[in-house]
Write a structure and sequence with these properties.
5-stranded antiparallel beta sheet, Helicase, Ruva Protein, domain 3, alpha+beta, 195 residues, 3 domains, DNA polymerase, domain 1, OB fold (Dihydrolipoamide Acetyltransferase, E2P), 46% helix
Length: 195
């Protein structure tokens, strides 16, 4: 297995690049999130990689971060999702955005990715829900966000407390969250759940 590669970038043709290492040029497919961060041709680079071996081909996929590589491998385990679709998902949204879509059951956002239909989006949410470590999925935010950011933070906190995303939507949905902190929204939602 080729777990990573360090070498000189010799070709950039999205989504494929060639990295020369020890006199061998490795063709590597990358998501656009990684491709857009690449330096100019001729520069030295380091990528985390995943080698896929099939009867008819061996394909190497490269990622700028370990989180992208981990999500790519998890996506490959979802029924009906192949390497091309996994790359499209990583190209269409960040790892944190994907985690948020799964935790919030936001299939509408997933459907916007080329090649992902309604059934595939629903399957992604169902099969990935248990694989996502919620602590990694929730980005840390400084200060006390208001409005939409506060709603999102409150949603994440209630899910972390054990509420199902559907229940949280019902609790938060009717609340007026304008200019309220996440703490205020959580208190209101918990009062509503208790009442």
């Amino acid at each position: 297995m080729i777990g990573s590669i360090r070498g000189r970038l010799t070709l950039k043709q999205p989504p494929r690049i060639i990295v020369e290492c020890g006199g061998v040029g490795y063709e590597i497919d990358t998501p656009m999130s990684t491709f857009l961060e690449l330096p100019q041709v001729g520069a030295d680079i380091f990528l985390r990689t995943h080698l896929q071996v099939r009867e008819d081909a061996q394909s190497l996929f490269g990622f700028a971060t370990e989180e992208e590589k981990v999500l790519f491998r998890a996506l490959l385990k979802v029924s009906g999702v192949g390497a091309r679709m996994a790359l499209a998902i990583l190209s269409g949204m960040s790892v944190a955005d994907f985690h948020r879509c799964v935790l919030h059951e936001d299939s509408a956002m997933l459907i916007k990715i080329p090649g992902v239909g309604r059934k595939t989006a629903e399957r992604l949410i169902i099969e990935m829900r248990d694989r996502i470590d919620q602590q990694q999925a929730l980005p840390k935010t400084a200060g006390r966000p208001r409005g939409a950011d506060a709603r999102s933070e409150a949603f994440d906190a209630l899910v972390a407390l054990g509420y199902k995303p559907r229940e949280v939507k019902q609790l938060i949905g009717p609340l007026d969250v304008d200019d309220k902190s996440a703490e205020d929204i959580i208190r209101s939602a918990l009062r509503q759940a208790a009442g």
